[in-house]
Amino acid sequence: MSIVVIGSVTWDVAAFASRLPKPGETLIGDRYAVGLGGKGANQAAAAARLGQPARFFGRVGDDGFGASVRQALADHGVDPGDLAIDLAATALGVILIGQNGQNAIIQAPGANRSLTAADVARAAPAIGQARAVLMQLEVPLEVSLAAASLARQSGALAIFDPAPAPQDGLAGSVLMAFDIVTPNEVEAETYCGFRPTDVESGRAAARRLVELGAPAAIVTLGAGGAAWASDMARDGACEGFQPAFKVAAIDAVGAGDCFNGALAVALTEGQPFAAAIRFAAAAAALSTTRPTAAASMPDRAETDALLRA
Fold it and tell me: How far is CA 79 from CA 41, 130, 172, 195, 223, in A?
């Protein structure tokens, strides 16, 4: 098993409308959808869809949503056997989606908050055989730090999506615990003090994250592309920029998670850093062309086709 994911899982309820509502406003939407979500589960589903089996360690409640999560993971090619049952309810994601895929999300974390170092210990044998370990901030930070430590001890890449960003950011000592950090423009603003909006500011943000302690940083800018910087000598060039692929986006929920899952797939296959980012950008772009989170993840054939085109 080359990829292990430790983190969050939710059961998502998404409502679609022509725009996002204003505070205090009620809108009549177009439709709704339910399905698997949560950054951790989305990343695992993305990796599996792209051809790399992934093990996912998380927690769900002993409830109907938890049962739905287990079935959905299996449907996406991820064995649900590593999910622990918690006394808390399964986490729920409430997603509002407006024009061009713009979205607003509230997550009721439920069992995700119950993830502890004991879950990391439970995952230790799998991490010892992994080539990449994916982590996020929808679970307690100490869980991701413990998983990163085990990953590095075993020689696996520790890839960290520092989202949702805490209001006070993260110390450089925290960023140093991971090999690669992958914030979007909103999260990058929390850590860097400015919001990247274009190629130059994106590259500046990636450089700043490396200066703060991250060995490598990729700042995703949605339709604006992705900027990266690295001080890991094996990567060759120290920084770069990947333009976004042109697609007809309808729902950007889960695109960042798809990017991370695809990045792990490419890097575990031995692709160079810049090529892995290009692969991840293609997969993430495809995920925006269909609704909901985990169900939007593309397969390998269509990702390779977009890269060839």
Answer: 11, 16, 35, 38, 32
Please report how the helices 141-154 and 117-128 are oriented relative to each other, as an axis angle in degrees rounded to 10: 20
Average pLDDT, the chain: 93
- Could you give the CA distance from residue 24 to residue 306 in angstroms, rounded to a whole number? 41
For tokens 């690669």, name the residue.
180
User: For the whole model, what pTM was predicted?
Assistant: 0.93
Amino acid residing at 119 = D
CB 5 within 8 A of CB 40: yes
Range of the domain at 131: 3-308
Tell me the pLDDT band of 235, cut-offs 50, 70 and 90: low
Spatial distance between the Cα atoms of 175 and 22, rounded to a whole number of angstroms: 35
Q: pLDDT tens across 157-179, in order? A: 999 999 988 877 777 789 999 99
* Catalytically annotated residues: 257
Query: Both ends of the chain: CA-CA distance in Å?
Result: 31
Euclidean distance between CA atoms 206 and 156, whole angstroms: 22
Q: How many domains is the chain built from? A: 1
- Cis status of the peptide bond prior to 164, with omega within 30 of 0: yes
Q: Nearest-CA neighbor of 297 among 116, 7, 36?
A: 36
* CATH (domain of 276): 3.40.1190.20
Q: Within 13 A of 65's CA, how many CA atoms are on the CB side?
A: 24
Alpha-carbon span 292 to 273, nearest angstrom: 28
Distance CA 4, CA 148 (A): 11
